[in-house]
Amino acid sequence: GAQERPWPVRGWTLPGVMGIGAAQTLLKSSGLAPSQDAVLAGCGPLLWLFASQLLNAGRRVRAIIDTTPRDAWRAALPHALPALTGADYLLKGLRMMRAVKRAGMPIYRGASAFSIEAEVRAERVHFTDEHGTRRSIDTSLVLLHQGVIPSTQLPRSLGCEHEWDASSACWRPRTDAHGRSTVEHVWIAGDGAGIGGAKAAAHAGTLAALDISRELGALDAASRDAQGRRSRLAMKRHLAVRPLLDTLYTPRAALRRPTDDVIVCRCEEVTAGEIRAIAAIGCQGPNQMKAFSRCGMGPCQGRWCGATVGELIAQVQERAVGDVGYYRIRAPIKPVTVDEIADSIALSDDFTRGEFPS
User: Fold this and answer.
1) What is the pLDDT of residue 331?
2) Hey, what domains does the chain have and what are their CATH numbers?
3) Global pTM?
4) Cβ neighbours for 238, distance < 8 A, ≥ 6 positions apart
């Protein structure tokens, strides 16, 4: 349902640079922890969760570079009282941050102007700290994170309508309270419909299932609503903290719109400067941008550049991102290996790998 938000910065395509989400997957699935000189950079709950998980695994990192603006708490303050409904999330986050701080890991807050520099692979990071001092840290591994956003490729490929959510600076499908999309017989539940976390996703799935049951005639509307009451209340509780987190951790425009020399489309190596130049001559949206630059035509089909391309076009043309639009999606939704395709084929009991099925 969710994917890490791309953070295009100078050097993000170098070997030795990856997302914190990917590093967490390696830690959980294979027990692989990053080297001691790793640097964690960015913002959002996963930054602190991963740092605390590394502590539990007996591992430290060289530094944590937090790009959350120092005045973000002031903007988020109006959401603090409603967020207390989800106090469990707040307490968990505070405990993680306290544990990391007590462990003595160097933490640089309010960082800006972040970049990764090297000749062949990551060697150091540069940034400006909250006091305006320019700093440099040597490292062989940089782990980036700027929060998570809904993964929209699959619903887009089905023709579901989407809208730009300015509060969290991302696209999300249009759904009703039951998860019903704008396409008949398609419901979307969980983070793919809007970031809410695993517990909220489970309740969203329940509500979608109940509405599907009503559509199939197994329930009437009154029974659907009665059986879904507990899940609706639980979802409200789990989502109460989201406005606070979105205000705190949604990266500001300067972090989402890179400088001209930064590569935006990793697959086709198209820079932000090229995208801005094409937008300046009248390119109306990401799909026309494909024709001019091949941006978004690589294996990821725009997952790692789509939102950034739309924002850059909107910036140059002084338009709303929602009016600029997004890519039309083509198969494959995600690249798969031949081995994975072979494993998905239903084979008869007497079939042996290497034979051609009749």
Assistant:
1) 78
2) 2-146 (3.50.50.60), 150-245 (no CATH), 257-324 (1.10.10.1100)
3) 0.90
4) 86, 89, 196, 197, 199, 200, 203
